[in-house]
Structures are given as C-alpha cells and as structure tokens.
Input
Amino acid sequence: MLAVHFGAGNIGRGFIGNLLFQSGYQTVFVDVNQEIVDLLNEKNQYTVVLADKSQEELQIRNVSAVNSGTDPDQVIELIANADLVTAAVGPNILPFIAGSIAEGLRKRIAANDAPLNIIACENMIGGSTLLKEKVYEKLEESEKQLFDSRFGFPDAAVDRIVPNQSNEDKLMVKVEPFYEWAVDETKIIGSRPEVEGITYVEDLKPYIERKLFTVNTGHAAAAYIGYQAGMRTIDEAMKIKELQELIQQTLQETGRMLISKYAFEPEEHQKYIEKIVNRFVNPYITDEVTRVGRSPIRKLGPADRLVSPAVQYLQLTGDVPVSLTRVIASAFLYDYKEDPDAVAIQEAIYEKGIERAIEQFTGIEAGSILSETVLDHYHQLKSGITIK
Ligand SMILES: NC(=O)C1=CN([C@@H]2O[C@H](COP(=O)(O)OP(=O)(O)OC[C@H]3O[C@@H](n4cnc5c(N)ncnc54)[C@H](O)[C@@H]3O)[C@@H](O)[C@H]2O)C=CC1
Ligand SMILES: O=P(O)(O)OC[C@H]1O[C@](O)(CO)[C@@H](O)[C@@H]1O
Output
C-alpha cells in the first residue's frame, strides 16, 4: 500500500509517518526541504523517540521522499498511484499543494477508477474541506462531478505534541506518547483507509472543537502568557502557579461552552482537561513558547482556538469570558520579532490602534462587550500587570 504524505516535518514524521508505517504502508513524503528529502532517500528509515521515562525508540521504515519544488511530475505520478494521501504542512500552505494534487487526481482518473481519500491533518476546523476547495479551484466545471464520486476529502482532528527538534540525527523526532486521530467517516469515498490509530467518527465537530478549544486553547494560553512573563518554554511557563491557574480558568470557560453545546458529561470533560494540562508539564519535552504561539494572526482568526470559543461562550452562556479575553489580549502583546504574523500585528496596532487591530484580526466588532473586555486586559497587561 502506498501512502503519499505532504510535509515531512514534526507531525509528518513524528505522528502520521509513524502510524502509516505501523499500518503496513510504504510512505513517500513530499516536502520542499531538500536536506530532509535527501536524508529520507539515503536512509529509508528514521527514529521516533517517545518523550517519557522509557525513551523508547521506534524505527520507522519503508519511507522515501520527493521534493515537490524540483520534481513536481513525480508527485503527480505518485498521487495517481497512491492508496492514501495525507498532509500536515500548516493551514497556510494547503493552497500551495493543491495544484499538484489536482494534477495527480486528473492523471489518476485517466489511468484507473480506484477511489482515493485525501486527509489534511492540520490544527484547524475543516482542513481537508479547505484543501478540497483549493483543489477544485484548479478544475474545470465539467470535471467536478467525477472528482466528487472518486475522491474523498474527510476532515480530521489530530492530536500529538511534537516540538521542534534539535537532535544531531536530523531525521529523529521526539514525540509525546499520547496521540489521537479522528477522521470524518461520512466523507470517505470507497473503503475506509485502514490505519492503526485512526478513529472513524460520524460527527467530527464535537471531537475537533473539544480538541482545538482545549489542547490548543490551553497551549496558546501558556505560550502567550508565558512569553509575556519572559518564559522560553511551555514547561517553564507551567511552573508559574498563577499561569497554571489562568490556564485552568480558561479551560473552564471553553469547557462550560463545550458542555453546554455538546452535552459532554462534566466530570468526563474535567478529566479530559486535567489530562491535557498534564501533557503540557511533560518534563521530557522542551517546547518553545514561540513554536506553540507561532502564527498569531492564524490563531487569532474568528474560527480558531481563542476567538471562536470566546464568541460561542458569550452566545451560549450570556456571560463575558474573563480568561479567554485575557489570553486574546496577551496574543496582541506577542511581539516576537522572528514571527512575521507577530510583526504584522504590532505594525497594525501602531498604525491604527489596538481597538481597530482587534477588529481586523479577530472579527470582534469594535465597541462590543467582547472587544471592550479584550481592550481592558490589553491595557492592564501592557501597563505591567502580568502574571509573574
Ligand atoms: N507539531 C505538532 O505537535 C502538531 C502539528 N499539527 C499540525 O500539523 C501541521 C504541521 O505542523 P508541524 O509538523 O509542527 O510543522 P513543521 O514546520 O515541522 O512541518 C511542516 C513541513 O511542511 C513542509 N512544507 C512547507 N511547504 C511545503 C510545500 N509547499 N509542500 C510540501 N511540504 C511543505 C516543511 O518543509 C515542513 O517540513 C500544522 O498544521 C500543525 O498545526 C497538528 C497536531 C500536532
Ligand atoms: O500547530 P499550530 O496550530 O501552530 O499550534 C501549535 C499547537 O499544535 C500542537 O503542536 C499540537 O496540537 C500543539 O503543540 C500546539 O497547541
């Protein structure tokens, strides 16, 4: 069985590649990083290390790679013959891989009538749906019906913390032992890809919202508030008692919203929160706040981990979320110079003021109660009332 995976980065090698190998696939990674492509083709294997007391090493074999920048025809050929296509490149990169996927699917249609599923494994709601939209933008109107009947783009929720790597062995990836991969089975075309570790679900929305608004909201809170307090890593940040408390309060807010929306069992949800917070304090993982906080424009978007739960909390409970708005404010103070999103946000604040910047990046209307609350937190945090 042939799997083509776009993005041989942290989650690509450390999670998706790992499960594909365990499920019997031959995996070809598609990436634009020539060094990683060369190494994968030279070794045809790499090591995944579990970040816990055991430090267990898994050998991931049957892998190779192609550089889509220099060898686009090979990528097209691979897609034409694949049994499964997956991607973990980042939401902003999905439009750039759509062209070769469209071409590959065209070539496949000309050669055989086997169905194919394409699963984007990004931290976002509707990642595969977005990829499908971008692929379909490359099609003629007349092609779309046949594509609909042959190719599935099931959305997914993926969860495993894989920090940036600093190993001497450039292919080695250190990952937390925990993982979860839920896939929307209603959008599968043909038979379900048999991948060890995938949970097929009929309704993905509760899974993806629970995950994005707990793991990723909590993590973003630790990153932005931790950065504000001068911390370098998430585990350092988590040692600050007040920060842990703020994360707990933030996750109580997202929890209240999720429980009210999906009728989750409160005790079960509380256990889920505790488990997530424990993952953040894993002493075997060094995860920089600047990785977890990366791309703040994306993270402040209306459908993402901070603003969406805040807006839904207000709508569902009638109360203003005190902690979520504080985390949103701290994201507006995130001024890490190496992050182009952070720089753009700071420039927008400088040029048009914080209130307009909040509206621009979050879609929260200026003058609304949410905007006013974020604004209050922003001014307090800026005047030095920090967590430390
Ligand atoms: N790292 C993690 O723990 C998790 C990450 N994710 C999601 O997975 C996605 C990837 O994240 P990471 O693996 O952390 O990032 P990463 O930066 O380690 O990996 C991304 C890879 O995509 C490659 N890439 C960039 N442009 C490309 C293109 N045009 N074609 C093919 N490959 C291209 C990069 O060279 C890199 O190897 C993101 O959406 C992230 O939110 C989801 C869950 C966990
Ligand atoms: O990958 P993103 O969306 O930039 O956000 C980083 C987040 O993703 C993860 O890497 C994995 O879920 C978390 O560590 C963190 O919450």
Remarks:
- The CA atoms of residues 223 and 289 lie 4 Å apart.
- Residues 123, 159, 161, 215-216, 219, 292, 294-295 surround 6-O-phosphono-beta-D-fructofuranose (ligand 2) (CB under 6 Å).
